[in-house]
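I keep forgetting this: the sequence line spells out the residues, with the fold written below as integer tokens. I include a record here:
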Amino acid sequence: MSKRDVVWLLKKYGLKPSKRAGQHFLIDDKVAWRQIEYADVSKSDVVLEIGAGLGSLTEKLEKVAGKVYAVEKDERLCKILQERCERAEILQGDFLKLELPKFNKVVANIPYSLSSAITYKLLKLRPEVAVIMYQKEFAERMVAKPRTKQYGRLSVLAQFFADVELLEVVPRRSFFPPPRVDSAIVRIRQRRELDTIGEEFLEFVGVLFSQRRKKLKSGIRKLGVSECDFDVERRPEELSPEELWALFQIIKAELKKRKG
């Protein structure tokens, strides 16, 4: 879908992109096709799209996937999608609140303001693969390494529970209206279940990273432990996700021992 197509559709239906909803429509078909290729979509797949917009990605997905569920919150856009899409099933509503049908892959250009919440929910839903367009800065934080400025709780969430790859940077001119930031395509392949223990681990990481530059001994004191069998002279931002998990297990065992 080109910029001309988007402008024509918006004019036809008397719509203006909502700044509040962060509506920026993809106008580069090559980017859309690469997203689909990154997810290796075939007729055996049931694909979920989040934030379908005007259908620039949807119309391509329904040509190659066995089934497409396209989620769109804006009722006005849903009407356009229903008219334009031949096979995709349009689900009107908030992705974070909807009861979703079964699917095995996700390909989506999401609203950037909901990136954290959407990523967390996807990790709970556990698709085989998710190929998501994020704000470039957010994507860089997802793949950031320890001892870097961008490394934090989000990096640990993404890298401990999944294999994440930043595949390409997408310039702002690929959207209409162009956003103020560049974007990036990330592929997520989950490798651990985000269960109750996983949620406890994320809370633990959040406590430590609230004082990311302070030594670990400061953070574990906040959790009720004064010392443990770990190098507490290190800082949270220096630890890999696996090391943070090891520390979490030690602290959890120590707290259990004290309660017992």
Summary: The longest helix spans residues 241-259.
